[in-house]
Fold:
Amino acid sequence: MHKMDEIIAYNKEFVQNKEYEKYLTTTKFPDKRMVIVTCMDARLTELLPKAMNLKNGDAKIIKNAGAILTSPFGNIMRSILVALYELNANEVYIVGHHECGMTGIDPNNVVAHMEARGVQQHVIHTLRHSGINLNRWLTGFDSVRESVENSVDIVRNHPLLPPGTPVHGLIIHPDSGELEVVTDGYVYLESHG
Structure:
C-alpha cells in the first residue's frame, strides 16, 4: 500500500469516528496571538508545541528548512505580516534548533543530489546563467544562534511590521525541548523604544 492510500484510509476512519470534534473548539485566529517561525525538522512536530505550552489553535506556526528568513519580501515574511494584520497575532517568535540539518549545508552537495535524482545538468546551468544564485539560495548557516539573530533582524527591521511588535529569538534542543532565549523582544522594545 502506498503512503497516500494509507493516509486516505486512516482519514476515512478519522472522519467516520468523528475524531475531528476535539479540534472544533478553535478558530483561525490564534488564541495566544502569536506567530512562530520554526524549522520543518520532524523532531519538532509535537515537541515544539509541547515545550512552548501550546495546544491546537494557540499559534500560527510557519515552518521551513532552518527557520530561516532570507528575504524581507519573501513568503515567510508575507505569512508573518498576514498573521499580524489579518489573524490577530501580536508577537513573533523565531525558533531555531540545535542539530539542524541546515547547519553547514553545502549547496554544491545539494545540487549534486538534485542531479543524482534526475534534474538535468543543463537546467542547473540555465538557472545559474539566468541570474539565480543557487549557492546563495541553497546555503544554510554555520551557527544556529547567528541564523536566529539574522532572521529576527529581518523581521524587526521590516518597514511594514506594526510598531511595538515584540520579535523574539529562541533555540530549542530537539531532544529535551529546552528553550534558550537568544533575544527577548520585550527587552529589545524597552531599550529601543
In short: The beta strands are 34-39, 59-64, 91-97, 167-172, 179-183.
